[in-house]
Structure of Nicotinate phosphoribosyltransferase:
Amino acid sequence: MLTDRYELTMVDAALRSGTAGRASVFEVFARSLPAGRRYGVVAGTGRLLELVSRFRFGDAELAWLAENAVVSSRTLDWLADYRFTGTIRGYHEGELYFPDSPILTVESGFAEGVLLETLVLSVLNYDSAVAGAASRMVSAARGRPLAEMGSRRTGERSAVAAARAAYIVGFGATSNLEAGRSWGVPTMGTAAHAFTMLHDSEEEAFRAQVEALGASTTLLVDTYDVARGVETAVRVAGPGLGAVRLDSGDLLTLVASVRRRLDELGNSGTRITVTNDLDEYAIAALAAAPVDSYGVGTSLVTGSGHPASGMVYKLVSREGPDGSMVPVAKRSASKATHGGRKHPVRLFGADGRAALEAVYVGGSDDASGAAAPAAGGRDLVVPLMVDGEAEQRMLGVAGVQAARRHHTQVLAELPDQAFRLAAGDPAVRTELRQL
Amino acid sequence: MLTDRYELTMVDAALRSGTAGRASVFEVFARSLPAGRRYGVVAGTGRLLELVSRFRFGDAELAWLAENAVVSSRTLDWLADYRFTGTIRGYHEGELYFPDSPILTVESGFAEGVLLETLVLSVLNYDSAVAGAASRMVSAARGRPLAEMGSRRTGERSAVAAARAAYIVGFGATSNLEAGRSWGVPTMGTAAHAFTMLHDSEEEAFRAQVEALGASTTLLVDTYDVARGVETAVRVAGPGLGAVRLDSGDLLTLVASVRRRLDELGNSGTRITVTNDLDEYAIAALAAAPVDSYGVGTSLVTGSGHPASGMVYKLVSREGPDGSMVPVAKRSASKATHGGRKHPVRLFGADGRAALEAVYVGGSDDASGAAAPAAGGRDLVVPLMVDGEAEQRMLGVAGVQAARRHHTQVLAELPDQAFRLAAGDPAVRTELRQL
């Protein structure tokens, strides 16, 4: 029931008009990247495939639909038997995308495919928004480790998805335990200000934490006075203190003074982690400071100013009355679309870097997914679900790991200007080409 | 497991240091409203109470925590028995809030309460972000009905929460079926462009829809040519056509011409609904156009530029070694907090409108929740969960209805300038007062 009512009413009307079974191709794409961004990142695919596999209408749902007269009884029967038996192809999770990149293609009868619109878009729009922002943060951190800690700044289930998306683009860990359990993302976290204030002194709090978690823990030193907090931390934990965390204040100057004090006290091996309202710009601004790792919250889980990716789910081709496939497209003033199945290929320049997203259209429009012309580029389409069966290697923890590896590989294909934080045009131009 | 690792490690360390059971008061507040907003809206409370009631660690979760050595075996035993047995008080769902309003207070032993931090904030931060934006849209619509249709632009579970939050502040319906089933929000929706394109002509599509859903349905007329779409819609559905929907184009001029054409064709009773990338400003700009209802998506579910409310969860008071309660507060440079339990009262000016959020501090700090001084104001605190038992009237569909009524009532207390869309200061000033 994570879907919009109009999907069910369309199924209802299509069953009645005899068009529900027409072979259809739906395509997911974004008309543009978030303003100023150089590239987008596809995320959520593995999570989506699991949700599609489980997408059903149970007795409670059917009873509610009947009670509320949402659809006819014929449609209720159809929904009771529903499971998606079509084929989904698209960009590998972790892949980059650009304006009009055909990220995902759903092939099935119309009714089967139209039911998935909201679920597909909810997952891809949110997860890709986080991944796109997170990938820039990873670049800005220049090799220093990043931890995701934004669970409290987004819906409680979106938090798990955000942790997963951030890990795919190179974050090292998350605070979110469910993301650890469901998706194998490494988890981290030690203590908050509340723990210090629970105790009768900062020293007692630090002692309790070190006894429970060992000297290699991270002590939060900015509850009362940072300078004194650092001294207390070193006195309690000794030279083996893992790290100190700073969650407030003017980090650029604070970090330098904390580093000096730690070194003076003989704790040159103790790291400094900062977690104060960071985004990609703040991370970049700290490049010259002796920060060892970053924790990022709000800006990460809200896509750093762009909380939705603007992806849409459009019918691009469907069976005509004679059984052949007909490309279709919205034609009125704005939001016009390109009909027909697309075959995307990433082409490379003389320097070996990605230069063009060539989207071929107009070739074979049957459901066989004809390979796009080679042209020396990289075919961007992989099978994700075939006849209702999800590709196992895309699922669960293994899928997350595969997406993470894929992202590293494809990021290396981008030209250098793709990694500038300043607003600019997409790093790779998209060109629609007729086959 | 919808929680952060540091909450469990704090419990672990507190159990070891003997402080886990210290009576504690945690407070939820926002240091500021989203920039330029005149008021905030508390949402998510009823949903949160249900999640807190069900917050447990099952066998699978405990096994994962043990495997990953997150906490000691003593802590695992404690978690296995966990259920929240404390008391939660706070602002009624649908209530308005201002900077530093003490929105929610959690009273329990430290370990019991600290475990809820992430869940409490995830729910309140997201739901309140949506409600705050949605309430402005309702004002901007000046009595015209609004429908929430942003499910595809946020995480699939956040979508349900967003539909619920929008309904609480006055939206009339949602596209999201699960929000209908779980929370009793009226659902709506008829067809997308895909349905028109599935058929061999617009006329066939309209005919199929009218046969299935009746002439009172809403026909989407902008797939090909709006003028022709309107004529076809009227020809197919007749004078009883319920509404036409416009999802693209320059709405201000388009709506006027569609209204004229409908009237010329004798369909003066056919309504016009618009759904094209609306936010509160676009809705206000359409005030003079003959629009009958609005559908809002992206900007609603992403808080119209402010996707997280910035609420925090802070320990403000806890039991000392002698058993008395001790106010506590973070004291370092930035993010300083005010210790001690708060007693908020809304005070009214000579014109009868809300003028001041008086937050009394320093009185009784035990767990009895002493009433704040009357002073002619409205006490803002209601019981939400007492000794682990949620207030039934706050839950489920009834809770949503109560929150919706409450929002209407309290909104009427605000001065007129609170409803200006332009950026400005909070409509009600917050003042911390010593008791």
Summary: Chain A has a mean pLDDT of 95.
